[in-house]
Amino acid sequence: MPQSHPTVDELKKFFKATPGSDKTRVVRHLLAECPSCQEDWKDIADTSRFEYSGAFAAAEQSLSAFCTKGSPPTERPAVLLAELQSLSEENRLRRVTEDARYGHPEVVEALIEHSHVLRYKSAAEMLHFADLARLSAEACTIEAVGSVPRLGDLRARSWMQYANALKVCNRWSEADEAFSAARVHRKKGTGDPLLRARLLEQTASLRTYQGRLRDAIEMAEEAGEVYRDLEEWHSLGSTLVQQAVATFHANEPEEAIRLLNRAIPMIDPEKNPHLLLAACHNLVLSYISLDRPEQALSLYFEVRELYHEFEDDLILLRVGWQEGQLLRDLGHLRAAETALLQARKGFLEHNLNHEVALVSLDLAWVYVKLRMVEELKQTVAEAVPIFRALRVGRETLAALLQLQQAADQEQQALDIIGVLNRRLTNRRKTGK
Predict the structure, then answer these.
(1) Same domain? 326 vs 381
(2) pTM exceeds 0.70, yes or no
(3) Domain assignment of residue 109, given as a range
(4) Domain for residue 209, yes or no?
């Protein structure tokens, strides 16, 4: 959607070079040659007594930083990407570091996009190509990019993708450090408000994973304000989904449902069908949390076709996991066992230990209810190395071992599973 028009006051501040004014937003709009804003510009010039030399110098500097293009690539990015895909991972890293052809912004953007496409197929591959994008951006020169601020933006985007990939791989401490690097580079950039909002939004997602839920909600709200000002409604919908996820984990499922019902009409399914899927997925989870499985199941079947339009392994695994939870809550325990076993196997194959641990607890709950003591003990035994790999605290590991001992005591076992679920879901980066 089009951006909102700068106000006359904003235009005056821009041409007066007022400190703190949002120059990039005004530049973006004026470049679109908006007729009404050009009339406002004329009115300002006709009726005001500005000293224009400083104003136009500042305007020129903003335009130059934002619009200056660097040198063209020596090779098409698609060709270079194909070359990389024919190499081993180690040789890819060496090629990007040593071959000057890869130190170009168009190559960086191609690597970022390729990493993004892989997010629902392979977390490890997503991280690998994000790392390549980061190395490519670090190899870029000012001449290749066009200006120091544009180089700052480029490196911020590459580090942001790298951080997001680390988050997907559950390497949260490293993701935090990478997001910090992205913020440092962004401050050297053009001041692009969309880049700032995107960085806030992705950091909010990490804060949710870390259990820093209030920080996550505040960051999502701040990003949403930027998107609202720019009339970026689809992106605003995305931040509302982020806010809803954090709110859900803060044990406020009713508020999460309200936010998701606001977000869904804003989401453009052609632009990002995965976002619509995520919103529906979290809506189902919220109904499950409120012990309204019939409503959750009804919604699930409404969107089931949307789920199966995707061939992405990780999406289908999460769908299977959610189906197992629904079947469990509706009392179809044997069917739930089958779905959860398949989901756990898939997450193991993708080395997503956090998800494996949570699915194992769902499976343990099913075995407690079915009074399948030996299966429960075996599930716990298989979960112990997974919990250790997550570096959970001693108390959490002790509780898991206690679950094995309480396998034939239903209420005690269910209470332990509840404690373990809360600790895993809200676990901070310290692993406590």
Answers:
(1) yes
(2) yes
(3) 70-191
(4) yes
